[in-house]
Amino acid sequence: MKKIALSLIATLALTALIAGSTASSAAAYGNDAVYQIEFSGNCDNPANFLCTNVFGVGGIWVWAALDVDHSGDATVAFCAHGLPTAPHGIAAGGPVEVTWSVVHWEGPPFAIGSVNQDPSNNYLAISTTQGPLITVPATPGHYSFRDGPAVQAQTQVVLIPGRVANP
């Protein structure tokens, strides 16, 4: 019985230690984020008009935390395939600082760079110092886009409860 009690105490202590260490890393971006955005877009069909003429063959993956002051942090990765010269492809990625704004748009979402329609016609336009990165719906939810085989995008927009962006 004594061994079981000691084992239980050791297990609880280890559980508390692990829970405490993971909680601090989960809060690494502080309390300023208003939105968290996840986007995955793949255009892998060279016969598709969008892949050949608009996006290029490849993909982009973005995770972003958008802060109350309209700044934010993102991690971006992308790849391109079938380039005309060697090495015929490229892949890159890393962390980047972003800025963002809310854009009201009642036309087709492609016209402002979004593959998904926002039900309220409000979009989050996310940019880097190099220019526009992605535009996604501002209304929280999961969005899917598909334009044939090997052409799809998934977007997840999370509005963090109780947080409001500065005007």
Describe the structure.
- There is one protein chain.
- This protein has 167 residues and is α+β, with helices and mostly antiparallel strands.
- The protein folds into 2 domains: 30 residues; 129 residues, no CATH class.
- The protein contains 2 helices and 8 strands, in the order αβαβββββββ.
- Strands 6-5-4-3-2-1-8-7 form an 8-stranded antiparallel sheet, covered by helices on one side.
- The N terminus is likely disordered.
Question: Main traits of this protein?
Answer:
167 residues; alpha+beta; 8-stranded antiparallel β-sheet; globular
Characterize this entry briefly.
This protein is α+β, with helices and mostly antiparallel strands.
Task: Please specify the SSE layout and strand pairing.
Elements: H1 2-26, E1 33-43, H2 49-55, E2 58-67, E3 71-81, E4 89-104, E5 122-128, E6 131-137, E7 141-146, E8 151-159
Antiparallel strand pairs: 1-2, 1-8, 2-3, 3-4, 4-5, 5-6, 7-8
